[in-house]
Amino acid sequence: MSILSPLQIKEANAHLVALHRRVAELEQRLGTTEETVREQAESLIRKDEQFRTTIREITEGKDREIANLQERFLRSEETAQKLLGVIKEKDDVISQLTHRSQLLSKICQSRPLLDSLLLYMAEGERLGAFPGSDLSSESPVIFRVPQSNGVLISNDHFSLCENDSEDQELEKTLFGTTV
């Protein structure tokens, strides 16, 4: 073994003291770093929990909004179906009224012709029967024709039947327009 000189021992001791100081300093820094890492980890855990809570609240809000929108959609669909039914009913009424309007228009267009025909028939009735014809056995038909002054003309001597034996039960009939 070799013997160390007191100077070498002193230098070795100074080196060991510096080494222990450095180790203590590094341990302190390590402790500080560990504390910082632990604080950061705790902070991350808290933030993660906050984010999870926020995400859960957003998800619940989204689910409520989706349920609300689905309910509104179903109500809108029901309303749309009801309105389509109403539209179909209205279209049917419009179709019926259109047909009636066209019929009434045709009646109105034909009215002057019918009025003229009835006036001619009434004029024929006023002329009377042919001499030598027997009208006593025929069933008379009454025509009432509106005149321009509102007076109705009637005649008991006009018959639509050529042969009275065909229709013995024919009662007096009233012809005219109601338009």
UniProtKB/TrEMBL annotation:
Keywords for this protein: Coiled coil
Coiled coil in keyword set: yes
Entry coiled-coil feature ranges: 9-43
Name recorded for this polypeptide: Vimentin-type intermediate filament-associated coiled-coil protein
